[in-house]
Amino acid sequence: MSGPEQWGDSVDRREYLAWVYLRRVIEASRGDLLELLWPGGDTSQPADVVDVAERIATRDTGLPDRLLQATANRYCADPRQDAEIARRRGMRLIFPGCPEWPRRLDNSFFSLHGAGVGSDSTVRGLSTAPFALWVEGKGRLDRLVQLSVAMVGTRAPSRYGREVAQQFATELGLAGYSVVSGGALGIDRVCHEAALDCGASSIAVLASGPDVDYPSAHGPLFRRIRHHGCTVSEYPPGVPPARHRFLTRNRLVAGLALGTVVLQAPLRSGALNTANWSEAMVKPTLAVPGPVTSAGFQGCLKYIRDNRAAMAICTGDIREQLEPLGRGAAPGEPELPFGQTALTLSETMVFDACAIGSEAHAGSVSDVQAATGLSGNLVMRTLRDLEKRGYVRREGSRWIKAPGTR
Question: Ranges for the Smf/DprA SLOG domain (predicted)?
Fold first, then answer.
């Protein structure tokens, strides 16, 4: 391979193919790659993606040894092949800086990094943020996730588990939520279908390439999801599912949603891995209780008992956790005087820590950091965003809640 200068005539074309190339040669994501793309970690700045792709393709010895080793069997890939598959299927590759890139993912992984869980065995030490995603479907990912809930559970649910999953997904869909899940057998399928059946949107996060429907029997379901929402994948076309890819997939399920609900899970369940991610991202995590004699609910019961998940016995419990500051009104609900979309958990934490009116000795950045435990970069970024949206205003060194928002 001769490098990005051979991939296309225009700068935009070379940049796009450089992203496609990285998505092919990098498995999931890597911290050393993110540092090369965004030195200092500020993903709001343009990434020099063509340079990074060129260095990997030409085996630049100045790159980290582990990155060179990780790409040793893939660096000769020609991204034009993946780009052509994407063109034929109508898929798109999004990355930070794209209008469709969901800001919630950035906030989720900032919180995860701040929690110091990079080597936590409960999330398998795979806490690196994604750098690009393949998306297919009529729904815009950034809009779909504004009011979204991850709903996960066992592949072998009981009748009770199915009934609760269908009821909760239907009621949340009617309330305006997008349902995020993994497209798997069992609870995932029930939740996807219930949301679609009531006219809501759904997002399926795949553990395979974007053109690989797994399980294959869910092909019709994935087509429905793409018509009313979208499918999302970190992996390039043709990549088969694998156990480690389900684990890395789970972090995206948790990261895209406001919070996670486990509908039914035994003690050893992939659904609990998603709950671990949600917990590590400091997001609301809930579980449905079941019979104490049922092995299929022992994971849910343990997380509730250990205070790692709030108990969800109705959708009101879920919405109470996910809507601490409200959102744009659903049909028949009174409209709040501020905001048309839900705040993320980190946004809510920062907003709550801001001063009220002339409240003395409160509202400085250090005060907000102390109250939330979030990193300084995330606090400043969130404050600036809340200011643009009219939630807070700045007075000197203090941040104050805007009138009508408290």
Answer: 123-322
